[in-house]
Amino acid sequence: MRTLFLIRHAKSSWDNPGLRDFNRPLNERGLHDAPKMAKLLAKKGVKPDLLLSSPAKRAITTAHFFAEAFGLEADDVVQEQEIYEAAVSDILNIVNNLPDSAQSVMLFGHNPTLTDVANRFSDQYIDNIPTCGIVLIESEADSWKAFSEGNAAVKKIFFPKEVL
Questions:
Q1: Which of 62, 68, 74, 76 is nearest to 160 (CA)?
Q2: pLDDT, tens digit, for every residue of 76-95?
Q3: How far apart are CA 35 and CA 67, in angstroms?
Q4: Which residues pair with 137 in a beta bridge?
Q5: Fewest CB atoms within 10 Å of the CB: 7, 10, 42, 57?
Q6: Which residues of the chain have pLDDT under 70?
Q7: Are 124 and 137 in contact (CB under 8 A)?
Q8: Which domain holds residue 47?
Q9: Distances from the Cα of 60 to the Cαs of 25, 46, 66, 152, in angstroms?
């Protein structure tokens, strides 16, 4: 069994319009929602083997809140440059090349790509994964290389406005 959590970064700040997109921090709502969403999963008994994040400030900060909720260190979050500004095919390639030693993986990234990836595995259209939204995809595949639309499906969705 393979479990993939697609997690969109928490709400970011637009207070400094001159700041590069890559460097935008979380705003007040993001700083509130990220630890709460992380604790929600931790209370449900989720135990990720790998946390993989875009290196953009808002994504990696979100991932660090999740790491803390699972008793991990910030250094345990693996930064993957390719997630930032990725296309759907890039994310699927990253997933298909995950280490098989990891059964449960959290991938922290950006829209619209994460929503598009989630829709590949969903039988109901997902209009938009909101900030700090989580989509859980499960597969019976024996390896990440075999993880595909044919054997994986969206099982649960956790959106902050619905669960907090």
A1: 62
A2: 999 999 999 999 999 999 99
A3: 10
A4: 4, 154
A5: 42
A6: none
A7: no
A8: 2-14+21-163
A9: 10, 19, 10, 26
